[in-house]
Automatic annotation (TrEMBL):
This is 3-methyl-2-oxobutanoate hydroxymethyltransferase. GO terms for molecular function: 3-methyl-2-oxobutanoate hydroxymethyltransferase activity; magnesium ion binding; methyltransferase activity. Its EC number is 2.1.2.11. GO terms for cellular component: cytoplasm. 3-methyl-2-oxobutanoate binds at D51, S52, D90, K120. HAMAP family: PanB. Mg(2+) binds at D51, D90, E122. Its cofactor is Mg(2+). The gene is panB. It catalyses: (6R)-5,10-methylene-5,6,7,8-tetrahydrofolate + 3-methyl-2-oxobutanoate + H2O = 2-dehydropantoate + (6S)-5,6,7,8-tetrahydrofolate. Homodecamer; pentamer of dimers.
Amino acid sequence: MSVHKNVKRVTTNVLQEMKNSGAKISMLTGYDFSMARIIDSAGIDIILVGDSASNVMAGHETTLPITLDQMIYHAGSVVRAVERALVVVDMPFGSYQGNSKEALSNAIRIMKESGGHAVKLEGGIEIIESIKRILTAGIPVMGHLGLTPQSIYKFGTYVVRAKEENEAQRLIEDALALEEAGCFAIVLEKIPAALAEKVAKSVSIPIIGIGAGNGVDGQVLVVHDMLGINNEFSPRFLRKYANLYEIMTEAVKNYIDDVRSGDFPNQNEQY
């Protein structure tokens, strides 16, 4: 655990040391300067600038609409707040699939314009050429397998993935391929806990789970979900550590009442 406590700046090497020592890795999403500063100062290991910003920040139904420019904007806002955490930036839908040269160009843009520390791509063997090309530029890559939200229209549902033997075996093969290609870590989303634990034991790189049980090397949640800001999303894997929806709603109502009554501002709150 000393690996975790004594670190001034989390790097991919630190994450590998944490896996090797059995120290669990903590990861949350972040999309803006103020929230990222709080998360980072609390001691989080990784901040993921997720394409989930498409949902929680912009109100889209899926992650597909968010653009590369928008991801760079969010990532830059987070990077300027962070002193300790590793900042990983999602490459948005359409920025890396099918064209590895374009994938490299877009990854370079993310790194140069946002100052992020790594990128994350969804998919396995089918995107391996994009991953390899990005890695040639010295850009760290995090993989993402299982439920991959950018492929929601292919799956047609957000149910648990890899419950069947064939899909489970393919996921293991994908994880091994990502490790061999050079990914420094992999996110496993919404798959059976036993399979996730098997993957974590089959590869030497850190495995971060979301809805993938406790047999992996770390966990990630969307910060708006775990803080209870989004009160409409309650899957089994989510533990809410606060109910900010109620707290913030009550605060706003109190402010409105004080403005309408003339109580705000009082004599001590004016010049």
